[in-house]
């Protein structure tokens, strides 16, 4: 097997593509031949030693992947050799093979494309948990999606639209706004224009007839957080997803008081750990939504696994719309 090995987490340049022995699965594990793996923002942070989870060295990055089970360890009965699966393990995906805990592998129903599967779990589970579980989104409400052209943003647009909401997609360029509109957004807000001119709140007020959005989906943080929260509707819900912009904003607590609004934390990984049955039910719902055509990952590009550094460079430059996927040549 080959894998991108991180022996010193000082950045992407320290990763090396190495030949390694193909491991045998232990109790509770399966050996997965990886067809495709997607690049997520935590995959960048983890090789820079900036992520909250710090795996022991050396490690293979790549949190999310899909492939075929090639061997099963003792006591594994829920998966069989030859079965297609998707998996989110935190590490191991940027390789030709990896060991994965069987309990973290999701059997894929017939018709679920492996490239799509590699780009599906993290973004759609995060967005579904955020909007429907934590945000209690109802049909007819208005959702503002910040970072709307990214992986979680594009998933959020599709999930909110399927739930019957009106979606305002905010993104940092005209091209990203156009993508958001193509996948179902009802209106767009180019915040590279409106932030520079100071008209972000005015434009949001115009797009909501003065009412403000009922739900704000924010994976960005940074300077947009406060003006977005100031614009929220009465009884609105502000969903804190992440901080892709870098800075973690400090928000005045009088703002939710004045609007009867809620600031709601969203941590899908911890939800999956603490409430596994509810998470499994959600994942089944999402898989059905994919097969029925309601949800389809937006894939910016598919690159060979050996071109991982180029994929990281695109992500670092904030050029990605949707998800980047790395594929192994054997698939």
UniProtKB/TrEMBL annotation:
| Segment forming the signal sequence | none
The enzyme's E.C. designation:
1.3.1.103
Q: Which PROSITE patterns match?
A: QOR_ZETA_CRYSTAL (PS01162)
Q: Which Gene3D superfamilies match?
A: Medium-chain alcohol dehydrogenases, catalytic domain, NAD(P)-binding Rossmann-like Domain
Q: Which UniProt keywords apply?
A: Oxidoreductase
Specify one Pfam family.
ADH_N
- Return the protein name: 2-haloacrylate reductase
Q: What is the lineage of its organism?
A: Bacteria, Pseudomonadati, Pseudomonadota, Betaproteobacteria, Burkholderiales
């Amino acid at each position: 097997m080959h894998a991108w090995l991180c022996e010193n987490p000082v950045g992407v340049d320290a990763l090396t593509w190495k030949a390694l022995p193909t491991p045998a699965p232990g109790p509770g594990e399966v050996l997965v031949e990886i067809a495709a793996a997607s690049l997520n923002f935590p995959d960048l942070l983890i090789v820079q030693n900036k992520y909250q989870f710090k795996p022991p060295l050396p490690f293979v990055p790549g949190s999310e992947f899909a492939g075929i089970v090639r061997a099963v360890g003792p006591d594994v009965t829920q998966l069989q050799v030859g079965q297609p699966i998707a998996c989110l393990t935190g590490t191991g995906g940027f390789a030709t093979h990896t060991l994965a805990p069987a309990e973290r592998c999701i059997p894929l129903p017939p018709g679920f494309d492996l490239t799509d599967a590699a780009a599906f779990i993290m973004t759609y589970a995060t967005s579904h948990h955020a909007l429907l579980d934590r945000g209690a989104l109802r049909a007819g409400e208005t959702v503002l999606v910040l970072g709307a052209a990214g992986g979680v943003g594009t998933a959020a647009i599709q999930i909110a639209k399927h739930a019957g909401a009106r979606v305002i997609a905010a993104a940092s360029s005209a091209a990203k706004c156009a993508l958001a509109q193509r996948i179902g957004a009802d209106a767009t807000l180019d915040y590279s224009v409106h932030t520079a001119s100071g008209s972000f709140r005015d434009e949001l007020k115009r797009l909501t007839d003065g009412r403000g959005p009922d739900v704000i989906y924010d994976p960005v943080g940074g300077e947009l957080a406060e003006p977005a929260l100031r614009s929220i509707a009465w009884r609105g819900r502000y969903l804190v997803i992440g901080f892709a912009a870098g800075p973690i904003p400090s928000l005045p607590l009088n703002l939710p008081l004045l609007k009867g609004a809620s600031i709601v934390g969203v941590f899908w990984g911890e939800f999956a750990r603490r409430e596994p049955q509810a998470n499994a039910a959600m994942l089944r719902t999402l898989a059905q939504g994919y097969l029925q055509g309601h949800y389809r990952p937006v894939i910016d590009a598919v690159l060979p696994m050996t071109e991982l550094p180029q994929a990281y460079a695109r992500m670092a430059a904030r050029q990605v719309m949707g998800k980047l996927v790395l594929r192994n040549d054997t698939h």
